[in-house]
Amino acid sequence: MHLTLEFGGGLELLLENSTKVHKVEVPPKDGEEKVTMKGVLSWAKTNLIKERPEMFVKGDSVRPGVLVLINDCDWEICGGLDAVLEEKDVVVFISTLHGG
Amino acid sequence: MGGGGGGRRREEIEGELKKLRAERKELDARIRLLESQLEVGPVGVGGAAAEEGVVDGSCDGSVACRGRGGNGFAPDGGLPADMIYRYSRHLLLPDFGVEGQRKLSQSSILVVGAGGLGSPVALYLAACGVGCLGIVDGDDVELNNLHRQIIHKEAYVGEPKVKSAADACREINSSVKVVEHQHTLRPCNALEIVRKYDIIVDATDNLPTRYMISDCCVLLNKPLVSGAALGLEGQLTVYHHNGSPCYRCLFPSPPPVAACQRCSDSGVLGVVPGVIGCLQALEAIKVATAVGEPLCGRMLLFDALSARIRIVKLRGSLPDCTICGKKSAFTEQDFQKFDYENFTQSPMSDKTAPSVDLLPENARITSRDYKSMVDNAEPHLLLDVRPTHHFQITSISPSLNIPLSMLEEKLPVLETSLKKRAAASGKEPSLVVLCRRGNDSQRAVKLLREKGFASAKDIIGGLQAWGRDVDPDFPVY
């Protein structure tokens, strides 16, 4: 499935060359037909995150302080980890900022 | 510097300026006092006293900012001629008009933090004619603030930020009541201060304060206009208003300490908090006047590098939120006792860096010890593990720069350098590791010792200690 994954608020530092936008092909998990957010998280952890994975995930979800947006909508409204993604969806992972 | 005559002349002018400014300040104070006596109602007189600045450091409760009659508006509701002229461009806006300006003039807004975000917030709120503007900050103006904290001027370096900001606001609009709260906002004083205002603007720079302000606004039922900026990115939303979530609904657990970047470590492009601060002022005006749709239940994400603004939809307030949820048992007493620094494991300040303690005493030396090593020409290699862009700002010469993140893969480079040094001196050189503050150097020494560099030691306090204890001319950043 074609997805756009974006990282911001400092999370991009965990990726190669600190690249923020990634157009990727995420396959469904073995034996499943659909791609869920749970699958996207573990795919991103394995395939995109280059260092300190604990700064991205905790358990099977994102670490505290990270907002996840599916097509510009808080994933909590879309079903969180169980949200089912569709072709060309845009998923944004953004770390909350505290500076000022 | 400077010859005798010119220097003296300059001194004279500066002296005269200082005197005149003091006289002007006294006149301003007298004018404000007389003006306040003309005002009807109990608020006027108390307000004027407050304008002189609340600097007692206690959890002061004497300054009232609620229910202000509205600057410029006469009791019968009409706007006098000079105010019509002053705010004419507001009055001409069909959506805003006299009613918008009246609501603005009756509103009281508290800006927490007079820094990069708070500067444009306070300037715009003063200029646009809010009734009462409170400013809270316990810090003093520093030279390295001025590139982004545009409310402060060079002449105010070393002065309290609140005083500097309040003076600037009064210079722009003398009809606004500006109240100075010269403390750091803490659980012990937050309720008393926040209670007096209608709208709160979070323009602070650290995580525990953000949780604290949000909790306080929920307890006192105040809308919270929250902005943040770091590096080249900014974020903005309005919490606890029109069904929007509170900070805890969004972030029930605090992030790990390592994920909390600070402007004093990661840097920030001056105009980025400026952009977010301007938008915060805008949202505060919209909430105060009930004009337009405030950013409730939505968050604005600003990426300066790619010039992109994205507005996303957020969850609503959570029914089971521990703070704003229906069944919340969080009281004002709980709030005052809550340890926000412990909860987030970070300090209520951007400046105090959390320090680590990873090494035994014999693996560390002081900056003065290192100076003696140099003076005694002891063979050694100084390894600077800061990121390359830090190394380019300034460094101790000669030193080898291998950033901590690359140390493990570049150990052969270090090995080679040590061998060269040994060949040159005929002795085994010791390995001294340095960073900015003495945290990364400990991590590096720990790694180096594990990899067989048994003699590696780090300099306690890093370059900051070097600048403080050995070389006062060494540039600090």
From TrEMBL, chain A:
It is found in: Cytoplasm. It comes from Digitaria exilis. Gene3D superfamilies: 3.10.20.30. This is Ubiquitin-related modifier 1 homolog. GO terms for cellular component: cytosol. Belongs to the URM1 family. Its main location: cytoplasm. The modification 1-thioglycine is found at residue 100. GO terms for biological process: protein urmylation; tRNA thio-modification; tRNA wobble uridine modification. The keyword Mitochondrion does not apply. InterPro entries: Beta-grasp_dom_sf, Mopterin_synth/thiamin_S_b, Urm1. C-terminal thiocarboxylation occurs in 2 steps, it is first acyl-adenylated (-COAMP) via the hesA/moeB/thiF part of the MOCS3/UBA4 homolog, then thiocarboxylated (-COSH) via the rhodanese domain of the MOCS3/UBA4 homolog. There is a cross-link at residue 100 (Glycyl lysine isopeptide (Gly-Lys) (interchain with K-? in acceptor proteins)). Keywords: Cytoplasm, Isopeptide bond, tRNA processing, Ubl conjugation pathway. Pathway: tRNA modification; 5-methoxycarbonylmethyl-2-thiouridine-tRNA biosynthesis. The keyword tRNA processing applies. Acts as a sulfur carrier required for 2-thiolation of mcm(5)S(2)U at tRNA wobble positions of cytosolic tRNA(Lys), tRNA(Glu) and tRNA(Gln). Serves as sulfur donor in tRNA 2-thiolation reaction by being thiocarboxylated (-COSH) at its C-terminus by MOCS3. The sulfur is then transferred to tRNA to form 2-thiolation of mcm(5)S(2)U. Also acts as a ubiquitin-like protein (UBL) that is covalently conjugated via an isopeptide bond to lysine residues of target proteins.
TrEMBL record, chain B:
GO terms for biological process: Mo-molybdopterin cofactor biosynthetic process; tRNA wobble position uridine thiolation. One of its GO terms (cellular component) is cytosol. Keywords: ATP-binding, Coiled coil, Cytoplasm, Metal-binding, Molybdenum cofactor biosynthesis, Multifunctional enzyme, Nucleotide-binding, Transferase, tRNA processing, Zinc. Residues 10-37 form a coiled coil. ATP binds at residues 116, 137, 144-148, 161, 205-206. GO terms for molecular function: ATP binding; metal ion binding; molybdopterin-synthase adenylyltransferase activity; molybdopterin-synthase sulfurtransferase activity; thiosulfate-cyanide sulfurtransferase activity; URM1 activating enzyme activity. The active site is at residues 263, 435. It is found in: Cytoplasm, Cytosol. Its cofactor is Zn(2+). Pathway: tRNA modification; 5-methoxycarbonylmethyl-2-thiouridine-tRNA biosynthesis; Cofactor biosynthesis; molybdopterin biosynthesis. PANTHER family: ADENYLYLTRANSFERASE AND SULFURTRANSFERASE MOCS3, UBIQUITIN-ACTIVATING ENZYME E1. In the N-terminal section; belongs to the HesA/MoeB/ThiF family. UBA4 subfamily. This is Adenylyltransferase and sulfurtransferase MOCS3. It comes from Digitaria exilis.
